Amino acid sequence: MSQKKGRVFSGARPTGRQHLGNYLGAIRNYVALQEDYECIYCIVDVHALTTLETTRDLRQNTYEMALDWLAAGIDPEKSIIFVQSNVPQVMELHTYLSMVTPLGKLTDLPTFKEKARQQPHNVNYGLVGYPVLMTADIVLYKANLVPVGLDQAPHIEFAREVVRSFNYRYNTQVLIEPEMKVTEVPKVLGIDGQQKMSKSLNNHIELAATPEETLQRVMQMVTDPQRVRRTDPGNPDVCNVFTMHKVFSKPEEIAMVNVECRRAGIGCVDCKRLLARNLNEHLAPFRERRAELAQNPETIWEILRQGAARARVIAEQTMQEVREAIGLP
Ligand code: SF4
Q: Using CA positions, which residue lies closest to atom 8 of ligand 1?
């Protein structure tokens, strides 16, 4: 691990079974990064508590998500994969970082305002401090890189500011300012063709769906709205089905759809069937591996426990330096 180019940290809320949006936006990249970086991937269950009104599904969602990550190729031999609450040092660091973070800065953040608008009945203290906990997640492991989309840039800038405030306040260099590792991800929308793919909007396609379910979801996809009849020429540039073809189909198939759609040579039904077939082919090895892993759920929990044990070693080392820098007795 020491030969690697740097340390990457990324976290995601336990949302259960993952979908194509998760795969293209994060998981695929997580798997690729393992080759060159020391990677730490965290299922951030404490973050989830800021918005969850019941924890009934939390454990199952954590399990399903870990299962998908592992089946997709996150390798516990190469990377640390663990659950946030299993490393309590993050809560301690969160508290110390909160002392150097002005409250106004947090309440001014657009993400906080948006959340407060979404859940006006539950604007809790944890929700305000969310970005501070996120900063603690990253800097606890002295990660220098955080893989993000460009829309996440303000969060990383915020984390850097908190680190600078801490280091300045205590005259130390203990904490490292993380940097963004921006990754280009295809803009794949949900099957409604309108919004980002998301479970809560029920416009998603699950990675672990059966081939039949996948075909059914693809058949529901909204296409070029101007193409009403089979004989109308379409415009693949505005069609989400074509966007997915560009990710999952062979170059000659992409070229064919690009030409035939425009001259009504191919109908949307056939175009979608082709996409569903390619999607199912692409996901077949994942689904096979997932089914194998699912035969023994205890293995998944053990991987998470071992990951947390490794994470705690790094975390405790950082915390000893942090406590000393602050001057805690
Ligand atoms: Fe979209 Fe394919 Fe229909 Fe063209 S033929 S509008 S690319 S689904």
A: 268
